[in-house]
Amino acid sequence: MPGKIVAAGVSSCLVIGSSPSLAFAQPAAIVPPVSRSQAALVAGIENKELFGYVLRDARWPTKQIPVCWQDFDPVDASARALVQQAVKDSWEANSQIRFVGWAKCVPSSSGIKIAVADATPEVRSLGRFLDNRPSGMTLNFRFAKWWPKDRPSCAQTRDACLRAIAVHEFGHALGFSHEQNRPDAPDQCQELRQGAEGDYRVTAYDPSSIMNYCNAGWVGNGMPSELDIAALRTFYGEA
Amino acid sequence: MRHLVLFLAIANMTLPVAAQQQGEGGSAIWRYYATRIAHIQLVGIQYNGQIELASQGSGYLVDDRHILTSNHVLPDVADRYEVVQTNVRLRMRKGEALNAKVVARDEVNDLALLELAIPLPPQPYCPVGVLMPPATLPPGSILYLMGFPLDRELSVASGLLANENGDGRWQTDAPLNIGNSGGPVFSSRGYLVAIAKGGVVSYKVGNQTYDVDGINDLVAVSKLKNSPVGQWLSQHSISGCWQEQTTLPEGDEFAWRARPIPVEAAVIPPPAVDNQPVNSSSEATDTNNASVDVVSADYASSADDNPAHDPSVDVNGDDAEVGDMAIAAPVAPEPPLPDSIVVDHTLSEVKDDHGLLAGTKSYRRTFMAEAGFLIEACDFSAVSANRESNVACVIAPDGKSATLQYRLTSGPIYDQWRGWLRGTVSLDQRMAAATEGPLQKIVETIRLPIETIQSDHFSAAPTSRTYETRHSVASGLMIVDCAFEAVSDNHANAVECRIAPDGKTASLTYELTSGPLFDQWRGWLKGNLVVKTAKAE
To answer: Pick from A120, A116, A235: which is nearest to A171 by CA?
Structure first.
C-alpha cells in the first residue's frame, strides 16, 4: 500500500513538493541547451506548508482493534470465519495489529461494527474514525444483487471474492485509502477514483496493491502486495 | 522667520509619517481590530464519544456576522465524526465560543466564509475598510497581520509585501506559523489587503535540505472579486460594515476613522449626550464629517464608565487628531442581543434496516431556542428525501424548543431500499419578552450525552421504568435553562427536565418501555441534556 494512507484526505494540507514544483524539477540532463534568452534554471523543490492546523492521522492508537458483527445470521457462520481468517492471513500476519472479538455486537461493543448486506461493501470512514460507528463496515456475503464490476462471477467463486474484498475493506479500516486516488496514479486508473484521498504517501504508487481498483489481479490474489505490507509496517510495526 | 516656517511645514508632514512606523501602525491596528480577530476551531465528537480538535486557524469578522478565513482551516470532516462543531472565539482564546457554519467556500483561492448563528451588533466593531483593485499596494509596503499562532493568544506581526506574483498570490517576510492561516493582513493604514495562507518551510536541492524563513504566502483580497466567497459577501453582508475602497485614499487617514459606517446602517442609536444631539439620517449621510461625528459620539459617550478612555479625545472629530492616532479606542460595551434571529440546524437521518416486510418508524428531533429567545416559527426545507412522510415541526408551548417529527420507511430484506430525510430546520426566534425580567448572561452551556437503552424482556407484558439523570453546578453558578435535545428515541415517554428551586440541580426524568418476551423491542433515549448556567445572584 503504497501509498495510501491514513486519513481521509479531505483536507490535504501538507503540500510536499507540490505538483507545480515537481513540474519544474527536471533533472538538469534533459533541459535543452542553455540559451541566454531563457529564464533562469530551477535548482530545487520547495516544501510548502499551509498554516492551519489540521488533524490528519487516522491510525488506530492501539494495536488491538475490536470487531463485532451487527448481523449474526447462523447461515453465515462459514463466511464470517472466512473473513476473520482472511484478515488474519493478511494484515495480522504482517504486523502487530490484532483484530479481536468477532462476536455479535452488543450495546457495549466498540471498535469496528460490521453490517452484512447484499449491497456495495464499504466503510463509512477510514481508520480509527470507525471506532464504535454503527454499520461502520458493510460486507457482502451473497453477491446476488451486487458484485464487483470486473467480477460478475463472484456469486460462483464467492470465497475468493469475499476474501479479497474483506482484506480490502479492512485495509480501509486500518486507515488506507484507495491507491488509484493518488495523484501519481496513471490517468486511466484515476478515472476509478473513489472516496477520500490520503494524506500521506507511504510508498511509491503500487499497481498491484489490494487497495487499487486498477489492479487486474486484485480479486484473484486477495493478498496485500509487498508495498502494502511495507506501508502497513510503517504504521503498525513489524510482525 | 523663514526658517521657522519651514520647520513647521516639516513638522506637519512628518506627523503622519511617524504614525506609519512599525510599532505605532501595529498598535493602531490592534486597537481598532483586535475585537474582530477570530480564533477558529473545528471540534469533532467521534462515534466512540471522544472529543478531539480537528482543525484550527484564525479569521476576521468582516461585518456583523461573517468571518473570512482560509478554506483549509475548515476541512470537511463530516465523514469522520458523529458531531462536528465550529467554535469561533473573538479576540481571546478564553472567550465564549460562538456557533458558526460555513456558508461559502473557494477551494481555488483557499478562502472560506463562516456565518455566526447570532449576528453581533455593527457597532462598535464597524466599519471594516477593504482595499480593492484598482487600488493596490506596491511591493515594499508595510503589512501587519493578526492571528493566533500555535496556542498563543492574539498576536500582531509585521513584514513587507515582498512580491506580488501578479495574480493575487502575495509573498511576505512577515512571520507565519501554524494557526496563522486565515488571519487578516492589513496595510499600514488599517485597510484589509490579504489573508494569511502558508509558506515555504524548507527547500531541497539534490540531497541537501535547507531551512527556509520569510517566504510566506498570502491571498490578496482582490481574489474575492471572482470568488464564491466574495459573491456571498456582496449579497449577504447587509450591515453596511464591509466597505470597499477602490482608489488609494488621499492623505494618511486611518481606515477605521476615514470610512465611518453610514448612519442608516448603524442600528444602535448613539446614547444621548447633552452636547451631542443624535444625528438623524437626513443630516448625517450627506457629508463625511457628519458621519464621523456620530461615530465619535458613540464612543465618547462611554467615556464615563471606561477608565481606559483617553480624555484628550476631541469628540468633534477634529481631523488633526487622525494623524497621530489620538483617537479613542473603540470601547466595546456588552453587545446587545438582536430582537430576532434565525438559526438553522442540519438534519440527516437514514433508515437502513430491513426486516421481512417494509418497515416504518417515527422519528423526533428536538432543537432548542437560543438563550433568551423564544421560537416563533419552525420551517423544514428538505435537500433530499426518500420514503418520508408526516414531516411536521411542532413548537413547544413554552417556545423554548421545537421538535421535527417525521416517518421513514425502508424496504424488506429482499429489496433493500432505504428511507431518508436530509435538510435544514430553520428556527425563527424572537427575544423573550422583557416581562420575564432581565436576561441573565449565560456563562456556559453544558451538553451531557444521554444514552439509555432498555432491553428487559422478562415478562409477558411490556416493561416500563423511570430513569433520572441529575446535573449539579458549582457554587456561584445557577441553572437558568434545562432541556433535552433528542437524537434518537424509541418508546420513550414523559421526557422532562426540571430545575430544582435553588437553581443548583437539573433533573432529567424519562420513562422507557421495552417489549415482552415474545416480541423483544427495545426502548431507548439518546441525545443531550442541555443545561445553561448563569452567575448566581
So the answer is: A235
The whole-angstrom separation of Cα B107 and Cα B105 is 6
Is A48–B48 a contact, with Cβ atoms under 8 angstroms apart?
A: no
Q: If you count residue pairs, one on A and one on B, with CB atoms under 8 Å apart, how many are there?
A: 121
What CA–CA distance (Å, rounded) separates B216 from B171? 5
| Residues on chain A touching B182 (C-beta within 8 angstroms) | 52
Answer whether B57 sits within 8 Å of A135, measured CB to CB. Answer: no
* Mean pLDDT calculated for residue range B120-137: 80
| A198 close contact with B: CB closer than 8 A | no
Amino acid at B285: T
Q: How far B502 CA sits from the closest chain A CA (Å)?
A: 37
Of B47, B54, B204, the CB nearest to A55: B54
Say whether B178 and A52 touch across the interface (CB within 8 A): yes
Q: What is the pLDDT, as a whole number, of residue B307?
A: 33
Bridge-partner residues for B44, per DSSP? B52, B84
Record: contact A51-B48, CB cut-off 8 A: no
- Secondary element (H or E) of residue B497: strand B492-499
Scanning B114-266, the segments in alpha helix (DSSP H) are: 228-236, 255-258
Write the pLDDT tens digit of every residue in B209-255.
999 999 999 999 999 999 999 999 999 988 888 888 888 877 667 77
Kindly state whether A118 is in contact with chain B, defined as any CB-CB distance less than 8 angstroms.
Answer: yes
Could you tell me which residue, B298 or B169, shows the higher pLDDT? B169
pLDDT at B129 > cutoff 60 = yes
pLDDT of B355 above 50: yes
Residue A8 and residue B79: Cβ atoms within 8 Å? yes
- Residue among B181, B212, B416 whose CB faces A119 most closely: B416
What nine digits make up the cell of B306? Answer: 471606561
- A53-to-A5, B68, B71, B107, B172 alpha-carbon distances in Å: 19, 17, 12, 17, 20
Closest partner residue to B177 (CB to CB) among A10, A51, A133 is A51
How much is the pTM? Answer: 0.59
The H or E element that residue A16 is part of is strand A14-16
Answer for the pair A109, A101: CB distance below 8 angstroms, yes or no. yes
- With beta carbons less than 8 A apart as the criterion, state whether A198 and A227 touch: no
Residues lower than pLDDT 70 in chain A: 1-35, 196-199, 218-220
Cβ contacts of residue B5 below 8 Å, gap of 6+? none
pLDDT band at B440 (very low <50, low <70, confident <90, very high): low
